[in-house]
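Hey, I'm writing a tutorial for new members on how sequence and structure tokens pair up, and I'd like a real worked example in the thread rather than a made-up one. If someone can provide the structure for the chain below, I'll link this post from the tutorial.
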Amino acid sequence: MDRAVFRAHAPRAVPIAILAASAGALGFAYISETVFGLEPCVLCLYQRVPYAATGIVAVLMLGLPTNALVTRWGITVCAALYLVGVGIASYHVGVERHWWASIAACGGADTSAVTIESLNAQLSVQSEKPCDQVDWSLFGITLAGYNVALSAFLGAAALWAMRLLNGRPAP
């Protein structure tokens, strides 16, 4: 792609692409939950935060006056958020594979109750899904694993776009 053409269209095309990727990922998560009945754990919900944040940044980029500084800062923030998403998803994969224990509140009930009423109250409350319980995988890769790849790809794409905007040749 010619850098001049990219620079001319980047202030609108890149935020639209970021918004589409973020909306697509969040839409997929919503459909997985509502249509296919996959219950998210706390770490699954945390993995959605970078996509929501990049979507907000993209909307802000589209609403602000078009200039190179806004585009560069917005893409930089989105790249950082996608890379944070890689970290969260990687952590979740480690919890799923029992490489380490989760520090998030991933299910389990308070066992300190001693009265019948408090035990009944705990039984009536639906506990959160454990973060190490895998509901779905394809080729041995869970949704968290696929999220690692998607977040890494989107982060790399954002960094590549920054490289083109800064005038450095793409590798």
